[in-house]
Amino acid sequence: MAEQPAVVGGVDTHTDFHQAAVIDSVGRHLATAPFPTTPDGYRRLLEWLHSHGDLMAVGVEGTGAYGSELSRFLLANQVTVIDVDRPDRRARRSNGKSDPVDAYAAATAVLSGRASGQPKTRDGIVEAIRSLRVVRRSAIKSRTQTINQIRTLIVSAPAQVRERLRGLATYELIKQLARSRPGTDLADPSCAVKTALRRLARRYQHLTEEIAEADADLEPLVAQAAPSLVELVGIGTETAAQLLITAGDNPDRLRSEASFAHLCGAAPIAASSGRTHRHRLNRGGDRQANRALHTIALVRMRYDPRTRHYVARRTAEGMSKKDIFRCLKRFIAREVYKHLTSANTRQQPLPQTP
Q1: What burial class does residue 248 get, using C-beta atoms within 10 Å of its C-beta: 0-12 exposed, 13-18 middle, 19+ buried?
Q2: Is 157 exposed, middle or buried, given 0-12, 13-18 or 19+ CB atoms closer than 10 A?
Q3: pTM score, two decimals?
């Protein structure tokens, strides 16, 4: 029996269908075909890939979005999956843009070694944390928008309404507005604005309850996923959850603490020229993870004696505040990485609902 040729697959992912392509070990285009985004479609796609030879790996574009379920299916069937970024604009201008072209480009990126990233598995407790956190973040954003709308209405409200609410703290303001009785004559501007304020206040209270429920759900999950992480100075449930999401359910895919720092946008970028030798802030990477590191650094600068001593020493040496923050975030990323990789989040079962 003749030995099967080695092939590499590529998939351009979409909402309703995925475009798959196959190339051989020297990069020749063999075939391309679309498959529906259903369990049967995933099975047929895998069988089609295997029919062309010995499948070495599959490059999937968008493993964190449209291609997440396909990636899980392929990994469950012992297929090596490589996370592929979409082609840059220069490549698209020279090669054109179509689904088959993008699928072949994904396979070529894997074969050439340009794409080598291991995707997140998204099948453990960290994925559960990510889903719950989506609700919490949207509730916080909506609550902020609500209080801003309340204060804007108060500014333009009639004097009798504005003067009664002027200077109240947020808690007292919401409490007073939520229990107010504005009346029924909505044609009166004063009555209408009171009605609008009461409805916004009650929306604010509802969102606050929703955030509290999300916090109650997230706290035990985060503590279970990385118990040693939340014990570090300056790291709470929210920042720990974000760092866990950034690393994923399989943090072992990150080859070193330097790669984690780069992923968080905390790796130093050389900015030297002539006689000047310095580094600057990294404005790439996961900005939400960078924000979490920034929050941790702020807390430690205020409450951690070791950090306060470090800041005082570096300030006396003439280092700028931005550079001090850069160094602190790099150190925190190194510390966090050790606890993330020792947490073994993939092996931890989700807590059972009583």
Answers
A1: buried
A2: buried
A3: 0.83
